[in-house]
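INPUT
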Amino acid sequence: MQSSDPLTLSSPMSRYAHGERLLVALDCIVFGFDGDFLKLLLVKRNFEPEKGNWSLMGGFVERNEGLEAAANRILFELTGLKDVYFEQLQTFGDVDRDPVERTISVALFALINIHAHDQDAARAQNAYWINMDRRPELIFDHGRMVELALDKLRYKAAMHPIGFELLPEKFTIPQLQKLYEAIYNQPLDRRNFSRKILSTRLLIDTGEKNEKSTTKKAVLYKLDQEKYHRQFNSFHYFISPGKG
Amino acid sequence: MQSSDPLTLSSPMSRYAHGERLLVALDCIVFGFDGDFLKLLLVKRNFEPEKGNWSLMGGFVERNEGLEAAANRILFELTGLKDVYFEQLQTFGDVDRDPVERTISVALFALINIHAHDQDAARAQNAYWINMDRRPELIFDHGRMVELALDKLRYKAAMHPIGFELLPEKFTIPQLQKLYEAIYNQPLDRRNFSRKILSTRLLIDTGEKNEKSTTKKAVLYKLDQEKYHRQFNSFHYFISPGKG
DNA sequence: CCAAAAGTGTTGAGCTTACACCCATGT
DNA sequence: ACATGGGTGTAAGCTCAACACTTTTGG
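OUTPUT
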């Protein structure tokens, strides 16, 4: 948006005179958690280019569609969910990142409750949940996107109460701990973890217990939504710093 | 990058069959520090649209130019500097954010040594340094970009040794402290600040002293570049948490 | 010799860690 | 009763914030 005279001379001010128009895509790194492993929702492509190979779910941004709207559309097509939690990760724009045509890609990462999504929608897109640590090679620069997304997830979840997005509405503290252990790939102390989480006062005791457990049944909590949104940007040290 | 058959049928695989091509711009939030105030490098536009109003420095991404390259080009045109420190901030893509034509804008924030840049280059672009807290209203969504950039700068500088980018090669600890005070707009304790900074072991005593001072001359330090790049992503609590 | 800025030391409060112990449940 | 997993308490150690004192310099 800049230069000595960026408008056409016949200026109904409807187009910039120069500046190249490029394809703008949107690629989603969708994280899920099945109770044991951190997972990615990946697409086995049944179309060219790179047919048969794995990629992230993506799509082009349309002319009359904002970025947010495009993200919501694509995530809905993939999961059948509205109001999915997502954040922009980074925009990738190397000239040759897509061999077919110059494409700018806005990458975003999304966190969803793996049990709540629409399995048929995912099936229709040829999408499957794959364990993070067993993910296949991905097309283009999608592998780099996934690495960056994991970094950002770790970075953010260390201090912000973001992990809940990956769990069902009601969950136990041990479940939440398993999630954190999966994200950081390291064991955490039960008692200290519990204390840290409860000290945020973000959890409400539902009074119910996890009936699935075969031993002592853990208390089911739910998020205090209002407090959650209010405190979303406050710092809590769930993971001790120094991990980089 | 996704759909049932995204390629043209006459497939030399050189273009996707659908997907709209959009203008992709790049807007730079350039921070500087003059020893007392945090400043922004802003452009007084001498061209349409919004001629006479203030905006960020920007430009279009060209077809054969990567995003990084475009960022470096625009920052060079503006400051005459190569190897400017910058990070992507966020990509803005509301449909009507630019009234002339649908434009996707990748915003990035840059930190530069205000005394090292090329004044003539800035003058040629009609760019001026403006105090952060006296910045004028900006065109389009540039105001939001600046707010977000300040948030990110504060967020990042609280834990990562990023502030040095705004200072000259040799600087004193009191100067660095003034910078942090300007970024957070709050006074900091001299002794604790000094201890925190020195505990990173990122600073090398040059042996020289700041001759400009009229009282006790402070020691000039320089950055241990190697250690800096190695430790760049490690955590240091320069500012106590809880600011959100 | 005084004012102003720079440099160094100390202490108490609060938090984190590491650990031990008790409770609930199914076999 | 015992194995497994969930819940709570506590003491030691560390870090941070708050504050006092000394040093250097110019006037």
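end of record. Strands of chain A lie at 21-33, 38-44, 54-55, 57-60, 85-92, 103-111, 127-131, 203-209, 219-223.
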